[in-house]
Specification:
single chain, alpha/beta, Rossmann fold, six-stranded mixed β-sheet
């Protein structure tokens, strides 16, 4: 987690790892306003362009490894980058989006009053609350944090691209920026965006946020 200290020590450590946390390209269900969760839908034309824009972003960045959620929308989004960089994609189920259980795949406009109440309770981050056999926000945050720490520690001093999902990325940023899980959401992670983070072996630092227009 981020801690106060000498910024120069963070910037010039020999083992600073660069993590480029990417959200997948726009999907059909993104456009339709559906909850995707652990279900999947194909990329739209914009989503395919989102994936291609990543090639420009990473043109002058020598990546050492690429990790991705095992969901199709993530793998499809990162495949062009992996091909250009001639790197194998390491799949991690821990990088998946939140599971909404039976609400996965449902259009938001067709949710029942009970469904809406469940979602409101979920996003209030009531401790441990989950929909059916889905996940709580705390569970999502913990699994993503464990995974990203593991990736960073496995690649000291290297540059690593990690493809994940919108809410998952938000929850990780809340952790490293010391924002409470139940605090109102004040950030949006766009499709195809890149969140550049550095890790010095103990502490995370947010370097920049990028998204194509």
């Amino acid at each position: 987690m981020l801690k106060s200290g000498n910024i120069k020590d963070h910037l010039y450590t020999n083992h600073m790892t660069d993590i480029y946390l990417i959200r997948h390209g726009e999907t059909t269900w993104n456009k339709q306003g559906r909850l995707q969760g652990h279900l999947d839908s194909p990329l739209t034309e914009k989503g395919k362009n989102d994936a291609l824009h990543l090639l420009n972003y990473f043109q002058d960045i020598n990546l050492d490894a690429i990790y991705s959620s095992d969901l199709g929308r993530a793998l499809t989004s990162v495949s062009p980058l992996a091909q250009i960089k001639q790197l194998t994609i390491t799949r991690k189920v821990e990088l998946r989006e939140l599971s909404y259980d039976h609400l996965d795949g449902k259009p938001k406009q067709s949710l029942s009053s009970t469904d809406k109440k469940q979602l409101a309770t979920l996003f209030s981050a009531q401790l441990g609350y989950r929909i059916g056999q889905g996940e709580s926000l705390q569970t999502l945050q913990k699994r993503l944090s464990r995974c990203l720490h593991g990736i960073a520690l496995a690649h000291p001093g290297q540059k690593v691209a990690v493809m994940s999902h919108g809410l998952a990325i938000v929850m990780f940023l809340k952790e490293i920026l010391y924002i409470p899980v139940d605090a109102p959401r004040t950030m949006d992670i766009h499709n195809g965006s890149v969140t550049h983070l550095t890790f010095d072996g103990q502490n995370w630092m947010l370097q920049s946020l990028y998204h194509s227009k």
